[in-house]
Amino acid sequence: MSFSTQSSFSSYRSVQSPGHRVRPVSSAASVYAGAGGSGSRISVSRSSSVRGGSGAGMAGGLVGVGGIQGEKETMQDLNDRLASYLERVRSLEADNRRLEIKIREHLEKKGPQVRDWSHYLKTIEELRAQIFASSVDNARIVLQIDNARLAADDFRVKYETELAMRQSVESDIHGLRKVIDDTNVTRLQLETEIEALKEELLFMKKNHEEEVKGLQNQIANSGLTVELDAPKPQDLSKIMADIRAQYDELAQKNREELDKYWSQQIEESTSVVTSQSAEIGAAEMTLTELRRTVQSLEIDLDSMRNLKATLENSLREVEARYALQMEQLNGVLLHLESELAQTRAEGQRQTQEYEALLNIKVKLEAEINTYRRLLEDGEDFK
């Protein structure tokens, strides 16, 4: 919108006063104002020149009448222009109010609104709680896996220890069996020697009896009696009886010593065999217990391995599930950020439009004030 007005008028007033000189008086006023890229200018100039003389005074009166008529026309034109301008101002104010109403309605409908993010926040909090719980479950599963691994290592160490002990016990049992076999061979040899000594003793008894009988027969068949001055000899039968008694005593003593020796050897061998049998039985019981322990440890190890595999599968499933949920949440977050960016852009655009309208309003108000001041100056001029 552009509106410009230029007017000029002059009035000549003559005032004649006797006895002094009247100087010319001139006045000029100009106003420049602009609104919305348009400019208006109103200029008013007045000049009067009075010279002495009656003819000049009459001429000045005629010119003054013409100037007053031109001033009226100029003021009428200014009033018409001002009326049209005020009408334009009222129209612009009405348009401004209408635009403000539209802006307000637009802001109420499509403007930046405070959206209700509570359901998203609630979902985010729930997902955070689920993620925290899953992290705790993950840590617990990892701890269980570590404990299972440590338990498996302990069982493996125990298994290796028990296996070494089993091998040692089996080696001891093998050695004890060899000792038992050697002891049995020695016992058989001793029994054979005892039987041979018994047969030899019987043979010696039999020979002794035969020799005694042979001597008795020789004495009986000789029939000789020898008498000497020497002392009477002892009875041969008594001597033989003594010899027999000595042999019997010696044989009995040898028999007793031999029986005692071999009985002691047999008892020692028996005690050794008994102790070794007891040790073998204890070793066999220990071996049986160790086998049972090894079997139970192998079963526990298999169960721990299965548990570890199950926990690792569960961990992978949980990680995959929560990775998918995180991707979904990231998608929701990106969507919300996009909506927020669009909302901010829309708000900035509407703010710029509002500022532009506000600038137009300010410029229009400045033009109105300018014309109001011009009107007041015109009234003062009248």
TrEMBL record:
Region Disordered: start-end pairs? 1-20, 34-54
Q: Where is the composition biased (Low complexity)?
A: 1-17, 40-51
The cross-references to PROSITE patterns, in alphabetical order and at most eight, read: IF_ROD_1 (PS00226), IF_ROD_2 (PS51842)
Stored Pfam families: Filament (PF00038)
Instruction: One GO cellular component term, please give it.
Output: cytoplasm
Keyword Nucleus included in the entry's annotation: no
- What are the UniProt keywords, alphabetically? Coiled coil, Cytoplasm, Intermediate filament, Keratin, Phosphoprotein
Residues in a coiled coil are 68-109, 180-374
Compartments in which it is found:
Cytoplasm
A GO molecular function term, named singly, is: structural molecule activity
Q: Provide the IF rod domain boundaries.
A: 71-382
Protein known as: Keratin 18
Organism of derivation: Sus scrofa
